[in-house]
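Objective 1.3, modelling of assemblies. Example input:
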Amino acid sequence: MVPFRLLVYPGFLFLFFCAMLFSWLDRRIIARVQGRVGPPWYQPLADFIKLLTKEDVLTTGAHALASSVLPMVSLVSVLTAALYVPVAGVSADSFDGDLIVVLFLLSMPALTYFLAGWVSVGVYSIIGGHRSLLQYFSYEVPFLIALAGPAVLSGSWRIADIIAYQGHTIWGALTQPLGFLLAVVGLIGKLKRDPLDIPKAKSEVVGGPLTEFSGRKLALWHLALDMQTVVGIFLLVNLFLGGSRFLTGLPAFPVFALKALGVLLMLSLASALYARLRIDQLATLGSRWLAPLALLQVAVVLWMRG
Amino acid sequence: MTKTTVPIGPQHPLLKEPMSFQLGLEGERVAESAMRIGYVHRGIERLCQERSYVQNIYLLERVCGICSHVHATTYSRAVEALMGVEVPPRGVYLRALMCEFERIHSHLLWLGVIARNIGFDTIFNYAWRDREIVLDIMEDLSGGRVSHAANTLGGSRFDLTDEHRDKILEQLQIMDAQIQLLLGAVEHERTLRERTRGIGKLTLEQIHRYCVVGPVARASGLDIDLRRDRHEAPYDRLEFAVPVHTDGDVWARTLVRVQEAVESVSLCRQILNSLPEGPVTTRVPRRVPAGEAISRSEAPRGEVIYYVRSDGSDKPARVKVRTPTLTALVTLSEQLADVQMADVSVVLSGVDLCIACADR
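Predicted structure (tokens):
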């Protein structure tokens, strides 16, 4: 049973499938909002396979070992985090405090992303890397505080317990609407999506830290990011939308899927409806609004617990 | 603090045409900038001396990929002045009609480019979709979407029937609704305003010093527009406002351009409704007498000037083009001083550079 959970459901294969599906849906939704048609369903898979076949170029002066290890570290941390995030109530493993491990593992890609810019010597990569660190400090603090809300309310740092607590009360998003919104904003920053795609803004720093990557390594980076999107969305569904709540087994799945798609829709619409912020605007927003509001939410949660 | 040199161009996702900047960055702040142009120099002015007066119309259309018609028109007007030929009223109106379509096309294209550069792809897609309406109309009229070949010495090469006019008026109706939507989005979307306000500021004094023209000058409070100021047909009979703002930043330029596009839609409608009867061209003499002439027009980016000298042969002795982009280019080093790296894209797109025009 454990190998099946690791490799098939809810492990690697299922995540890979979700990554492709979500990436396609995301592109499709944005395209519809913008009055375009959008790509066919196999486009993300085709892109992935095409990148795998492309020549892998290493720039002069770039660190060869680091640039091949970094995308793998990024992918592996996301996959490891996924082990502890239940999908429709099923997870590969669970223990007391797994939420903290998941949050730590989901922060790893940000570090590898910065290092990716650092080891490939291009000037756009380095600027992009610096920006990604600055951005990290702006979104990560409110994101972590916002995710602490459900844990504090349910009195456990185990994701399964938080789901169970919502199962016999109500959704976390209803008790902490502010926390949920902040978590979504934090997730957008974490995934470097529009309007917070500052580290990789094309018109400013070309491709950001990934400018000098190509071929298989770039494919891995993209896959890691797409999987991070999936895991991030699943995490929010579990913590704020009750996961699959009291349902178990097969009926739980469609409920969970619908909630996940709802969060994806929020991310896609945010991409389509806003212009990109400048890094200093994001830093101001993060420290002046997001972090204090997140603290306020936690204070309210503490008061609710009595 | 150490300085990093960041190259923007000759090839960069931000630039739609090749030009090059070397930015000296201190952190994210631009401390110094050096510009290099000339990557799309095609020697068009020299080529003009090798070709006949009529061939030159179609060559000069290739100066710009967006405002091709206004270049051909301005050149034709200079040659017509040398010949002493008067274009029939219908021809003048049809030329102006095409120029106004081009202005809408140019401003919408620009709106798309700046939206794309600040990461607002939705506005980009809307603007470029609506621009298709104008391109379709222009293709209907002349057969070409970008290079129209709609001019000849002595008038216009196309004419339109009443049914044709009604069809265009219908398309303009749709255009009007779409452009109002865009104007509303531009005026009310907060992130767009936050990214463009206070960036690339030019004072009225700087505008005078660098002889800046067009929307950039009008966004800094300089009320110039050749169409209104020259009191010539057909604009002296048409009603239109010249939008002027005083902030002098990219935000003001955005407003000026979108509002101008709105005015242009109304101008197109007025021209179509008051089109005079009669021929569209007149016969021109076979020889151009020796002499020189200057002709000016209000292109989408501002005043374009043509100087043509004839020595009495069948080829011009000299054709000199002064494009509006040239005046805007020289302000860039001042606009780029002390801006954030992230705002470089806003500054560069804000002036609506047409490098191909400036290089020729």
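Residues 2-305 of chain A form one domain.
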